[in-house]
Amino acid sequence: MEIQELLEQVKAGTLSIEEAKQYLRKEPFEELGYAKLDTHRKLRTGHAEVIYCEGKSTEHFLEIFTHLYRENGEVFGTRASKEQYLAAKERFPQTVYDETSRIIRIEKNDKPHMGKIVVCSAGTADIFVAEEAALTAEYFGNYVERIYDIGVCGIHRMLANLDAIQSANCIVAVAGMEGALASVLGGLVDKPVIAVPTSVGYGASFHGVSALLTMINSCANGVAVVNIDNGYGAGYMASQINRLVGEQHE
Amino acid sequence: MEIQELLEQVKAGTLSIEEAKQYLRKEPFEELGYAKLDTHRKLRTGHAEVIYCEGKSTEHFLEIFTHLYRENGEVFGTRASKEQYLAAKERFPQTVYDETSRIIRIEKNDKPHMGKIVVCSAGTADIFVAEEAALTAEYFGNYVERIYDIGVCGIHRMLANLDAIQSANCIVAVAGMEGALASVLGGLVDKPVIAVPTSVGYGASFHGVSALLTMINSCANGVAVVNIDNGYGAGYMASQINRLVGEQHE
Amino acid sequence: MEIQELLEQVKAGTLSIEEAKQYLRKEPFEELGYAKLDTHRKLRTGHAEVIYCEGKSTEHFLEIFTHLYRENGEVFGTRASKEQYLAAKERFPQTVYDETSRIIRIEKNDKPHMGKIVVCSAGTADIFVAEEAALTAEYFGNYVERIYDIGVCGIHRMLANLDAIQSANCIVAVAGMEGALASVLGGLVDKPVIAVPTSVGYGASFHGVSALLTMINSCANGVAVVNIDNGYGAGYMASQINRLVGEQHE
Amino acid sequence: MEIQELLEQVKAGTLSIEEAKQYLRKEPFEELGYAKLDTHRKLRTGHAEVIYCEGKSTEHFLEIFTHLYRENGEVFGTRASKEQYLAAKERFPQTVYDETSRIIRIEKNDKPHMGKIVVCSAGTADIFVAEEAALTAEYFGNYVERIYDIGVCGIHRMLANLDAIQSANCIVAVAGMEGALASVLGGLVDKPVIAVPTSVGYGASFHGVSALLTMINSCANGVAVVNIDNGYGAGYMASQINRLVGEQHE
Amino acid sequence: MEIQELLEQVKAGTLSIEEAKQYLRKEPFEELGYAKLDTHRKLRTGHAEVIYCEGKSTEHFLEIFTHLYRENGEVFGTRASKEQYLAAKERFPQTVYDETSRIIRIEKNDKPHMGKIVVCSAGTADIFVAEEAALTAEYFGNYVERIYDIGVCGIHRMLANLDAIQSANCIVAVAGMEGALASVLGGLVDKPVIAVPTSVGYGASFHGVSALLTMINSCANGVAVVNIDNGYGAGYMASQINRLVGEQHE
Amino acid sequence: MEIQELLEQVKAGTLSIEEAKQYLRKEPFEELGYAKLDTHRKLRTGHAEVIYCEGKSTEHFLEIFTHLYRENGEVFGTRASKEQYLAAKERFPQTVYDETSRIIRIEKNDKPHMGKIVVCSAGTADIFVAEEAALTAEYFGNYVERIYDIGVCGIHRMLANLDAIQSANCIVAVAGMEGALASVLGGLVDKPVIAVPTSVGYGASFHGVSALLTMINSCANGVAVVNIDNGYGAGYMASQINRLVGEQHE
Amino acid sequence: MEIQELLEQVKAGTLSIEEAKQYLRKEPFEELGYAKLDTHRKLRTGHAEVIYCEGKSTEHFLEIFTHLYRENGEVFGTRASKEQYLAAKERFPQTVYDETSRIIRIEKNDKPHMGKIVVCSAGTADIFVAEEAALTAEYFGNYVERIYDIGVCGIHRMLANLDAIQSANCIVAVAGMEGALASVLGGLVDKPVIAVPTSVGYGASFHGVSALLTMINSCANGVAVVNIDNGYGAGYMASQINRLVGEQHE
Amino acid sequence: MEIQELLEQVKAGTLSIEEAKQYLRKEPFEELGYAKLDTHRKLRTGHAEVIYCEGKSTEHFLEIFTHLYRENGEVFGTRASKEQYLAAKERFPQTVYDETSRIIRIEKNDKPHMGKIVVCSAGTADIFVAEEAALTAEYFGNYVERIYDIGVCGIHRMLANLDAIQSANCIVAVAGMEGALASVLGGLVDKPVIAVPTSVGYGASFHGVSALLTMINSCANGVAVVNIDNGYGAGYMASQINRLVGEQHE
């Protein structure tokens, strides 16, 4: 341990105070930085980094996939291509690929799933994002209930599922086009709603901008928004919120 | 009457066919133009032009106001200032001014109001636009029911008024911020919904752009949109639609 | 029938009032929701849901297509691919596909077409959207007249068709580029104009944004706008308006 | 109680099953709607509605303020003007007004404050929004720690406060200009970060759009965003998250 | 001739004045419209319509191409594909295709070219638009001088060609990226400058928006702008201006 | 004259060729620059610079105004304030100020006005820009005819003035809101149309952007666009075009 | 000095190694942070922080102004109001205020000014930003030459000043409207050009966006851009660049 | 040499002063232009023009490549395709192609590399731009250190490399998504930071606009920005800055 050594050498007189000062001025960043935060991440989440597969060459992807799997006994990647999946499957036949969400993973079987997150989608076309959120939250150890195709142009479908929605610790609301789902949900529940605009739509939906603006301007309290199509980000944040319920209050 | 005269002169031989042709090539536009359409407008709607008061000097406004009132026995202006109102009131004490919608008018008392238009607003802040729509539709002889403050973040308020909404021939949906009202209404009724985005909101509402995009991207069928804060336009179009019900089918 | 049973059991004393209250608090949403509105839709329009084909897998598409056709004896889909058409044709040889509008359908032969809707296009390049509007309105039982290629840069072409346009209950105005068609039409008719901006154009047309803004800012009264390229939405709303003429006034 | 009565009358035979069915089809919305959700809101949060003061006339404001204070023994308003404050103070001398955040309130003294929320601001100019978030969260019964002026162009200031930040259940990150605070914080903590872009800046900050985009595109996990300058929304959502810690896990 | 006949019948008494009035109210539009303007176009320009080839099927294109060629002895099309060219060439071996500008044409050999238009481009990448402008202007009978690659980041290249530029009746300035060419030229000549922004560039050039804004905001007098990549429009307008020089002053 | 002197000294041998080369490498810019172009401007236009008054202090304005008047015997300023006018009037009682266009000027009485420019406006609200164009063109010696309030929502008004419009050498089309005037005019005339979008409108007109886009995307040939509200720029360019008619063809 | 003390105590045995480790893990950030960087800043620039005066209350401003002046013997503030100036002047009569740039300062008289920075402006309206850049650079000890009103619509004015411009180590190019100055300069010099878009202009200049895009898309090499109207930022960066010339090469 | 000859002829009397004046009025531009600046460029940078390969045909590319290589003994191209590379390699086997940055080059081996530029990237996905910057700067004779993947969501990685970063004369900061890297770096160094937004990201990153806005709004001093993905531009400007250190101070 470096600081330990340094201080011991100062105490023993084998390192001058000037030299120690010079060293300390730079070192703590490095020490804090890489080492401390990395350990921190493992300690608090119980799993390693997630792979953002898009744009990675198959070899590069496979190398990281293998490395993370060997280290953690499980591995999770978003926006994977079919080609990446086939490469992974060849090496690890237990690899699972979800074509809808494009998530690739090897997941431990015995993982407990705590609390409850509800992932809602406005339409069936939004499910590719909703599944990214749901599978992410499940991978991070949360219990997830999916309620899809409850868009606001048929409000009765949402109302029919109100009990299930209201029982969650956190709701993920996934919607494209006009993206009004989050506002309506926000007015019906007393738990945080993570809104995910999707690129579903055409014309003046501007690849998700319309839904994004709707959600950011929500008149309902308790709605916050992540990037367009960012199911992973919503699943991750929902996990952070849901897991708070299981922690001790300080 | 000019065309009458021309034809009579042709018949009488006092105008050559060549001269008549020359004349007809240009004239009908003018004749059609100003005269014909104006008369047409009166015949079909029963009232004259409406005054867009904004930006008009008080003298200019008063002159038009007086002219139209004298011609039609009633007069209607949008976006009037208080100063314009005081000037009109001095001359015509029966002038009525609505501070919320900034509509100024002298209206005949015995006008029948046909059919039914429902004007809904999402919030109380949108009422200045909703009232412009409602008063416009009333001025054009429609029966109007107002249902305000039924925004989607409290969906129960809308549901509680569903019967009234569903009984209209046409619904005007006025909303700012995320503007989701039109979509939800569109899914609950089988009549045309005229959506009016308002400039109500702040930040990423961009003075009504967010609501406009939401409404244009509505996943519900039967929703069409007018300009931001354009209550007059919505009231006018709703009137056109509502009055179809009373007309004969060809 | 569920509510019937519940009330009968309450009357018979086999269900306590407390239990019935508990049940009613949740159920009506579900009952209202799915069941009621669906039936309602059938009752009022005489046809089932329409398929938005884009992005659906051929199998998924074919399943819905078959289901809806079997239930209603006719079926209608927008934005269908040629591959989807071939799959449908193989199973139902009577399937009709319009390459211009990409509409796929099996339509009953003896359907009456009421009232009159005029669908106008500014240019020939806009016809793919205009046909989507026209075929939609026809499928919903309206009589449709098409008047294409009457853009404002040759205003005489529009004026030459004025009689036909003025005889409609509702006009659909389809235009890309600068999209001025709707404004000019709005000034020439006294019926509602549904404006459809199209993505036709290049450069600063921004895939339809220019036409959308033009139409939203129309100086003519009685113009409302749907999404870029949304011929279906315009045809649907025009149908709602046109059908009002045939309904009884309450 | 209405449903109780209805069922009793069905049981007693004074109301036919048909009549009861007719009634139930409509009523539950109203019952659910207004009544149920309102009660629900009180039960779960312990306080009534908040007043959005902007744009309300002083009389209107004062009426609502008085009504809510009388009902709940405390009252809270955002974006209040000085004039509104003076009117409230005249009637209720215990009214408190914070000039920075423009929050007006009468707050119970003995309210417990649970958990821990940290509200950070990038600069001193963002404090007007940060204080809106902090005072909101405090009003809703949360313990709040403020850490201001730790913007990313002096990253050492943030690092110096890392211990305090990492001890929160939820972090509110308030920043204008380039809005990078949320990303950097998101990478340093394992708790949800609610990002609030502010309108602070000039030129290409576009009144907060730059900060909004930065936050929405955050490369850090666990960041979600509310509207520009929406301190209230962030405080409300942080409260929802923080309070989860104190609730029972189902 | 219709009006002739009508008037003769009025004169002869075989058509009543009432009937003639009814007829005249509608007819002149049609007569004016199609017939008059078409003839007008031919009379004033000496050539028929131009084909905008993009998006037209090869058969459709070929039909129009053949029709116009047969009628006028020459034909001109913009944005033609190679496939369209090959189809035209097979039927008319004298067809000429310019790969850079994608202009297809059969042009009369003995056409005089009057006045002088200078077409400038900022870079070599802008030449595809500049050639569209130049060939268009030549087809319409103007003498054109091309001066390419004189962008403002090497201002000496423009200055070296100043004499040639200043001798034109009209200058077409074609530029992408920052599009500053038009402003600099506008300050150096006393003739109208038609500015054409191009889609050349990347990143924040936004496919020509940057150049468009630059040109619209030109601090130089005498600069007006056409759409992004609209070489044809610039060539057409330059032709209108240049040809004024040869006309008689009224 | 400097170059004269330099060459004379070289000839006389009082300046070495090396020194002369050194001098010539730099000087011509200066010589060309300030001096030559200024003279050029006077020679070709017959009048001096125009003052853009906005943002100039009254003293600064008055100094320039006086200087230009003394040099040229006339002077012309755009966007002048009333305060600037009063200052100018005190010194030069013959100063004329037009409140609508905010143009200030002292103009020679005996100036001939050549050719013909027609300035059209869509509405009465656009006249402040149309007058800037008209007065500018008149100041530069052109004959101008004004045709106002002929917007496309009443197309008959434009048609009624067609003869006058078609007789111009150049048309200036001034319109706000949806800005369709230029396209319709462009289809009816064979002379260049300079389109001026105005900031007239509200909501999605975005202070003139809607009209600007409409005009830039005009489907009519022969339309080019200047900046929003830039009446001066349109008047200047129209003058350049109109004056070509009076020049000799080279 | 804290680290010194800590190490001395470790050496002396009065602080245990464990305690020292605990302290060092947190402290260095603080120590590095506030203290070290501040000292660092002083060491390298020879002057303290600059005050961004906008939005600061007069008392708050005066406190900071006084504090910084007392510490450094000079003080510099941007975007100061006249009221702030009067307050400062009352306390420190030697305070200087520049109305154009709104810079307030007390500056040491004997400061050397090294190297050479040229600050150019396109028009006289841009000088308020150019002066902010120039005065900033001078305050930071650079020699500055101002060359104003050399916009590209009169390119000769720029060429006439080429020698002066080419002799600088760094050029600041300040321009609004179309902002082409930076590109033209970038093509004429071989030194870095810092481009500052200004909000000068109207209509489609969008308060500086047009100039910003022009500059970002510059076809010339060696141009980088700061925020709209950010003269201070440009002056600061130019200072960093210019001062490199005086430093030792490693 | 032309001017030499001209002056000699004037001296010898074989050219009249009038003729010489006529000649000088035009010629110097050409002479200055092409010749002088070209020579200048060579003299000051030691290398010829760089090829922007995108959009160039392979033959055209190869011709320029060969020409520049033969003239300078080295050659450098950006955005080259693999096909262009293969063509170049066939002729010049020593051609080097970097697939990441798409830079093609033949570089002299013995080139000295002066000073120090640090090129940082936020993520691994940004390296394609960072390498373009780094290779450009190296080609222009600068010593470059690469520090990649130090994005702000893991701030410790940046802090760990602070010494290396702080030792540069100029820093290039390359980042997509939220682009906060430049601001954080700007606060940690006292040297100019050239910020390069990249198109890396999705959704509301708008192909680099989000990062561009972040960087333009940087709260840190000493940050200026180039176009999205413009690694070449950043490398060029960094070279200009770094090379100042080695120049003499005037």
TrEMBL record, chains A, B, C, D, E, F, G, H:
SUPFAM superfamilies membership: N5-CAIR mutase (phosphoribosylaminoimidazole carboxylase, PurE) (SSF52255)
Gene3D superfamilies: 3.40.50.1970
Domain PurE: 115-247
Highest taxon listed in the record's lineage: Bacteria
Pfam families: AIRC
Protein name as annotated: Nickel pincer cofactor biosynthesis protein LarB
Origin species: Maccoyibacter intestinihominis
Gene it is expressed from: larB
